[in-house]
Design a protein that fits this description.
- The chain has 10 helices and 4 strands; from the N terminus they run αααβαβαβαβαααα.
- It is an alpha/beta fold and 305 residues long.
- It has one domain (33-283): Rossmann fold (3-Layer(aba) Sandwich), CATH 3.40.50.10310.
- It has a 4-stranded parallel β-sheet, sandwiched between helices.
- The longest helix is centred in the C-terminal third of the chain and has 24 residues, at 259-282.
Length: 305
Amino acid sequence: MHKLFLLSIIALCVSFVSSQTASRSPAQSQPSTQSKLSVHWEELTASDFRDAIALAQGTCLLPFGILEKHGPHLPLGNDLLNVRYVALNAARQEYAIVFPEYYFGQIFEAKHQPGTVAYNARLQLELLQETTEEMARNGCKKIVIVNGHGGNNSLLPYFAQTQLDRPHDYVVYVLGVPRRGEQGEPKHKSNPATDMHAGESETSISMIARPDLLHLDRASQESGADQARLNLPEGLYTGIWWYARFPNHYAGEGAAASTELGEFEARTWINSITQAIRAVKSDQESLRLQTEFYKRSKRPLDPPQ
């Protein structure tokens, strides 16, 4: 009887130790530093932020959206939602820190539509400069602005060019909106020439990024056709061109969207950002050349070294 009691006690102890061992993850099953650190800037603690900067090798993404009408069927923040979706997914594949929501760009052409937020040009540039400088002060020495809005196509390269005006200890890169027509892309149902805003392609990506905000049944309530109300020679530009062509702030046919096209375009976009992150991490020349340029620009009459 005594022996049976001792055996019961031993079995109980073994069971307890086994359960305690099982509850602890073995060293080889511990998640990597990358999997433990969020890619979201705002989700990191102050101490984790230091580790994240080191893991990202100082590489940070600034996904750039806007608040504007997107046809009758997509949310006002569609560009912001889509670009953050692809940027966050890319950063999880090749670790980088992703800055919080940013939508302070160029959208004067949509001021006649409800919900548009259009900041003046000076503020757009000043805020972007202050933001990148604060990012750099916190260790982001390689900042990739990931553009998700066509209205920024001229603003962002110009901003990058203005970085040569005075010295910086960081580099700003701009990754534009990806071109369509990649190999293997599903066939479009609508005219690609006018598939420019809230049309088949953009709506298809939204089916993947935020299907809960999509109202596909409304996509045909307005026309996204080109009104062609200007007759100017090619190469002659005027700011009213977009309104002249697409006064509804809708270009294309959102009703033609498909998840097949959306999955392809989202995957292609994510891959392009992932490749950009890797290229930026490997880039040791941009900052060196930038620093060299700053020094030479102070004394342009000195002979080259």
